[in-house]
# Entry
Amino acid sequence: MKRQNYISWDEYFMGVALLAAMRSKDPNTQVGACIVDDENRILSTGYNGFPSGCSDDEYPWAREGGFCDTKYPFVVHSELNAILNARGKNLTGATIYIALFPCNECAKAIIQSGIKKIVYLSDKYAETDGTKASKRMLTSAGVSFTQLVPKSNSLTIDFVVDK
# Structure
């Protein structure tokens, strides 16, 4: 008889996105993304951080101050990183799993890449103009978005395998 308490595909891929988020060095917000094809194969992952070659010790992590004294002009969001990390793979019809609903800039990249479905955990910025613009564009472009309601609040990964 097969095991009964296994996680769903959505929980699995969101777990991969959350694991990717743990690579982020941002002290305030860690977001990960996982792009999957229609056969449940992972095409790419990404997390929020500075572009390759830009040292995270030399750029600011601040959220307030002059524009160039904050992280905002420098950080690549997880969704865009995942799209760029795909290195030209065909993302048409793919699904992207992300912890946080995408901003308007990432929505543009999602649409242009051909991704057709977004599964997200949180929409905490739903009332901001950026998120409203994002939803408007995604809806116009036929990209669906669904909030994941997981069966449990946590997944545990144990590095000890031979118990």
User: Anything to note?
Assistant: The chain has a mean pLDDT of 95.
